[in-house]
């Protein structure tokens, strides 16, 4: 299962800079999760957890499996955002879209 990725950044970035940022984001995300085939299933599981428990769930309310998915996605997302936008970019400022 492959996924699409679109990076949104300032208008002053060139198309080549956007492409490079997308490549860095994708590589970091894939490596953090172990394989590109795992991105969509783990992201979907993460989104279900957030829909059920909120953005900052109490770790004690999660099962061990939910906690593992939650932590794994957050770490992978942080690695991808850092790779694409740099270490001084805040997660809330990261503009990207992952799709099927």
SSE layout and pairings?
Blueprint: E1 4-8, H1 15-33, H2 39-53, H3 64-85, E2 95-99
Antiparallel strand pairs: 1-2
Helix pairs in contact: 1-3, 2-3
Protein architecture, described:
With 100 residues, this protein is mostly helical. It has one domain (4-99). It is built from three helices and two strands, in the order βαααβ. The protein has a two-stranded antiparallel ribbon with strand order 1-2. α1 packs antiparallel against α3 and α2 crosses α3 (64-85). The longest helix has 22 residues, at 64-85. The radius of gyration is 14 Å and the shape is elongated.
Question: Keywords for this structure?
Answer:
single chain; 100 residues; mainly alpha; two-stranded antiparallel ribbon; 2 strands; 10% strand
Strand elements, count? 2
Low-pLDDT runs of 5+ residues are none
Mean residue pLDDT:
89
- The helix count comes to 3
**N to C succession of SSEs:** EHHHE
Category from helices, strands and their pairing: mainly alpha
Strand arrangement within the widest β-sheet reads 1-2
- Distance separating the two termini: 8 Å
| Alpha-carbon Rg, integer | 14 Å
Fraction of helical residues: 55-70%
Largest sheet data: 2 strands, antiparallel
Shape: elongated
Provide a concise account of the structure shown.
The protein has helices spanning 15-33, 39-53, 64-85, and strands at 4-8, 95-99. The chain contains three helices and two strands; from the N terminus they run E-H-H-H-E.
């Amino acid at each position: 299962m492959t996924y699409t990725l679109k990076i949104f950044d300032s208008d002053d970035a060139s198309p080549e800079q956007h492409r490079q940022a997308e490549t860095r984001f994708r590589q970091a995300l894939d490596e953090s999760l172990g394989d590109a085939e795992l991105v969509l299933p783990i992201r979907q599981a993460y989104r279900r957890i957030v829909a059920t428990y909120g953005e900052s769930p109490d770790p004690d309310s999660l099962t061990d499996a939910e906690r593992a998915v939650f932590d794994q996605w957050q770490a992978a997302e942080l690695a991808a955002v850092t790779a694409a936008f740099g270490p001084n970019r805040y997660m809330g400022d990261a503009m990207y879209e992952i799709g099927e």
